[in-house]
Design brief:
Length: 471
């Protein structure tokens, strides 16, 4: 019993020691984690290029990560000429409803927040600009790049005014950006209250806004910014989003549509191994993705369809190139009307005109290929090329009769069992497996011999018996 008690006491001491160690670890780990969490952390992401649904999705993911990760702020560095109104409004709504402070920073030096980018910048809880940057020029445009109606301008101006008032910024400047297309350099933007401050770097920005109080979320919960000496983590777009953003370009979309159509036409003109079809389908799929994230005008689509019809007409009814010329003109007009003249998403005529000219010439050449293939002589193939050939029989000892036809030695035989002597001339009349069925060519008839030479003399006329008169 004493020994048993000793073992139990020893076990209790060991367990107590293990529990103490685990307890200290459990207490120290949260404390350390809490210390890490007590240090300010900021999530940074970047917006470059046109505002598209891809940028909208990227910023929504950044806001969600900042909220879920417990970051003290989300800094969005902006350099954009503008973009789609629908994507801009979605981004603004996400910033207004965010439960984490959002800091917009027009950066680096020389960057701009144009058109839709200006309103995105002003929708953040804190708006800052780097030296040498500009903001503004937010006038909306129509699908064909022309001036829009007063109704659309009034709606955009009211949206900008409400946004500025919501963030405590100058509503008059916001309205002028929309109605007058006003653009402001950084110093004037800060002076007029369009943005909050100028910062030469991200570190300076985080130091300057430390201690500011903002309201976040739909419940307008007050939050004091803690950003000085903050740890900065990056939220990259990722490879897939970068590819999507690259494809969201009207110039690429037009190139994909044109090259894809041309490849399909050449596949129809000269069908072969299907390389043209594969390239054409791939290009058209890429074009469809671009069209899915870009605003498209119905008139441009109809003109594009008309161009395709004219090109196909040139292919199947080639003439002097009238249909190809009409298709080229329709393709140019499609480039003019297909995409709206949205800031940052313009289709360059320097792309449209040469591409349309090359496509038109290529279609004319494809039509000539079709004409040439129609008038080309039909050549036999397979066993048909052997029928009718004349050959000479060769025998080697007691082996089968053979003949050299179309570059190879073949075993030959007649339809009816008959000997084929060596040197016989035969004609191929059929193919039976690996044997050629032949017929023996008849021997040439003997030529008539010339009469003997008589030296110019003629045969005497035979004498006729005299007829006697009967008395």
């Amino acid at each position: 019993m004493p020994r048993a008690r000793h073992h139990r006491s020893l076990a209790a001491v060991v367990l107590a020691g293990v529990a103490a160690v685990l307890g200290s670890l459990m207490l120290s780990s949260p404390a350390g984690a809490q210390d890490d969490r007590d240090g300010p952390r900021v999530l940074r992401t970047t917006v470059e290029g046109a505002i598209t649904p891809v940028i909208d999705d990227h910023l929504a993911s950044a806001v969600a990560r900042a909220e879920d990760g417990g970051y003290d702020a989300l800094v969005v560095e902006i350099d954009t000429p503008g973009g789609l109104d629908s994507s801009m409004r979605d981004i603004v709504q996400g910033f207004l409803a965010a439960d984490v402070p959002v800091v917009s920073y027009v950066s680096p030096q020389g960057a701009r927040a144009g058109s839709a980018g200006a309103l995105i910048t002003m929708s953040a809880h804190v708006a800052a600009m780097a030296p040498g940057t500009a903001i503004g020029a937010s006038t909306p445009v129509s699908l064909d790049g022309a001036e829009v109606s007063d109704k659309v301008v009034n709606d955009a101006a009211a949206f900008a005014e409400a946004l500025a008032e919501r963030r405590g910024r100058n509503p008059d400047v916001a309205v002028d950006m929309v109605r007058e297309g006003r653009s402001l350099p950084v110093a004037e933007a800060v002076e007029l209250g369009a943005v909050d401050l100028e910062a030469s770097s991200l570190t300076a920005l985080l130091d300057d806004i430390d201690g500011r109080e903002v309201t976040v979320g739909t419940d307008e919960r007050p939050v004091t910014l803690r950003t000085a000496d903050a740890q900065v983590d990056d939220e990259d777009m990722g490879l897939l989003r970068r590819i999507q953003q690259t494809l969201a370009d009207p110039n690429l979309a037009f190139l994909f549509l044109s090259i894809g159509t041309l490849a399909i036409i050449y596949e129809l003109a000269s069908p072969g191994i299907g390389a043209g079809g594969v390239v054409g389908v791939t290009m058209l799929l890429l074009a469809l993705f671009s069209l899915s994230v870009l605003p498209v005008n119905a008139a441009g689509l109809l003109l594009l369809l008309l161009a395709v019809v004219m090109f196909v007409a040139e292919l199947f009814a080639p003439g002097i190139g009238v249909a190809a010329a009409g298709g080229t003109v329709a393709l140019v007009l499609a480039g003019v009307f297909l995409f709206p003249d949205t800031p940052g998403l313009e289709l360059s005529m320097g792309v449209v005109l040469p591409v349309a000219a090359v496509i038109g010439l290529a279609v004319v050449l494809a039509g000539r290929l079709v004409v040439r293939s129609r008038h080309a002589p039909v050549s036999a193939s397979g066993h048909g090329v052997l029928i009718g050939h004349i050959a000479e029989v060769r025998r080697r000892g007691d082996g089968p009769a053979q003949a050299f036809v179309e570059g190879a030695w073949w075993t030959v035989r007649t339809a009816e069992p008959a000997p084929l002597p060596d040197g016989a001339t035969v004609r191929v009349v059929g193919v039976d497996g690996l044997d050629l069925v032949v017929e023996v060519e008849p021997a040439d008839p003997p030529r008539p011999t010339a009469p003997p030479d008589t030296g110019g003399a003629t045969d005497p006329i035979p004498e006729q018996p005299e007829e006697r008169m009967q008395p």
